[in-house]
Amino acid sequence: SESFRALVAALVARFSYQVRGFDVLATYNTEATGAVHVGKDGEVAVSSGAPFGLRVAKHAPPLQRHWAVAIDLIQKQYTRGYLFAKTTAQGANRYYALYSNRKGLRFYYTTKAGDRDSALFKTQINDGLRHKVVLSSDSQHVYLHVDGRFAGRKKVTGPVADCGVPSDKCFFYI
Asked: Quick check: 107 and 121 in contact, CB under 8 A?
């Protein structure tokens, strides 16, 4: 819809999306399970012993027909890893995830019909520079914007499934 496109355009243009004040570096933060380490050079590393990284307790509502996820990050040069993932307990079933490697950004997803698929965007962000990534969907396509520029559109085989609101059985990881 036009209003959804306008929302995504606003996210891309201003990158003003914030997760309700969620700060992974705050020592008082009880919304996350895992540890965030800040090195002398300001580099941030996440560890948790979990399948993907830091588990966020309350900041990933279930996907709607139209949705968008925005992330601001620096990925070390030549590294690979998940930027975010929504899974069942211990990562047993991945509903959706965005993965970065030398080939680009790959969006893994499970449809509401139970089919698993992925979409590859040949845009690399593992170059040691800061990037602002917005991934959005209108339930027929996923769209990728990197640093305010359109990086691609891929058809999805069906609406993306979700395990529901965050709980002890439904996790969102960054």
From this structure: yes
- Whole-number Å distance between alpha carbons of 170 and 134: 22
Q: Output the pLDDT for position 45.
A: 55
Phi, psi of 7 (to 5 degrees): -65, -45
Task: Answer with the residue of higher pLDDT: 16 or 37.
Answer: 37
Angle at CA 143, nearest 5°, toward 154 and 60? 120
CB 41 within 8 A of CB 32: no
Spatial strand order in the sheet of 130-137: 67-74, 130-137, 141-146, 149-155
Q: Spell out the alpha helix ranges (H) of the chain.
A: 2-14
From residue 20, give the alpha-carbon distance in Å to each of 17, 45, 63.
9, 22, 17
Q: pLDDT tens digit string along 21-44?
A: 344 445 444 545 555 555 555 555
Which pLDDT does position 139 carry in this prediction?
Answer: 83
53-77 pLDDT tens trace: 555 655 556 677 788 888 888 888 8
Say if residues 134 and 12 touch (Cβ distance below 8 Å): yes
